[in-house]
Write a structure and sequence with these properties.
Blueprint: E1 20-27, H1 36-52, H2 63-71, E2 75-81, H3 83-90, E3 95-98, E4 103-106, E5 110-111, H4 117-120, E6 144-147, H5 155-172, H6 175-183, E7 189-192, H7 195-202, E8 208-211, E9 220-226
Parallel strand pairs: 1-2, 6-7
Antiparallel strand pairs: 1-4, 1-5, 3-4, 6-9, 8-9
Helix pairs in contact: 1-5
């Protein structure tokens, strides 16, 4: 699913730069699909592991692609794979991140029209996932990515949004905080906010993802990023 933290397309100077996209592939086997919340959290962590990888910085082999991608819109597209498709995708340069039930592979950014053939054939649709039971309360000592309760999104779309939220948190941190969070495995939670809390979150000055509205939903805020007390010193709202 394509998603952008942007203002309307024709008003953003980033559109003048060549456009790249960050590919993510979620493994969805027919017999054992991942839980939705775990897939969202794993996708967010996958983005962070790529951003923190030495290949994405300095003279690393992915550094130029990452820089070109961040110069434009931080587009992310989530596709699904299973069986032989997953094995072929896993042979490409990238990295796999696992959760309790989910496995997501993230790849260095590619031009919008320059996808590897092993990935371009994978389906974007069909990423509808469910949680077998309601998620537990989030760990407020780590970052929480709060999803807009007024939106209906496929799991793939929501995974892209969670990845955006994690990236906004990453950008807000200094090197020491980034290192500490990485050592903790980029622990975070993704939850849907209560409507009343969503209004408070989006008015609080916290980082907020704003989608450009190219797919599934109208333009507007999708994820609010609330920092944890332990490894991610972004603001945290006071609980009622």
């Amino acid at each position: 699913m394509t998603s952008d933290d942007t203002v309307p397309y024709d008003e953003d100077p980033r559109d003048r730069a060549p456009q790249f996209v960050l590919p993510l592939v979620v493994r969805i086997e027919k017999a054992a699909p991942p839980a939705r919340t775990d897939a969202l959290e794993t996708a967010a962590r996958a983005v962070l592991f790529l951003l923190s990888d030495e290949r994405a910085a300095g003279d690393g082999e992915w550094a130029r692609a990452v820089a070109d991608w961040e110069d434009g819109r931080i587009r992310k597209v989530v596709r699904r794979a299973r069986g032989a498709e997953w094995r072929k995708a896993s042979a490409l340069p990238g990295m796999a991140v696992t959760g309790a039930t989910a496995e997501v592979r993230v790849f260095p950014p590619v031009p919008l029209d320059g996808w590897p053939k092993e990935l371009v054939k994978l389906q974007v649709s069909g990423t509808d996932l469910d949680d077998p039971e309601p998620p537990a309360a989030p760990d407020l000592t780590r970052p929480v990515l709060w999803i807009n309760p007024g939106l209906e999104m496929s799991a793939g779309k929501a995974m892209a949004q969670a990845g955006h939220g994690a990236q906004l948190a990453w950008w807000a941190l200094d090197d020491a905080a980034r290192d500490a969070w990485r050592e903790d495995g980029f622990a975070l939670s993704v939850r849907t906010a209560d409507p009343e809390r969503w209004a408070e979150l989006t008015a609080s000055g916290l980082p907020v993802v704003r989608d450009a509205g190219f797919t599934e939903i109208a333009p507007g805020p999708t994820v609010a990023v609330e920092g944890g007390e332990r490894y991610c010193p972004l603001p945290r709202l006071r609980l009622p």
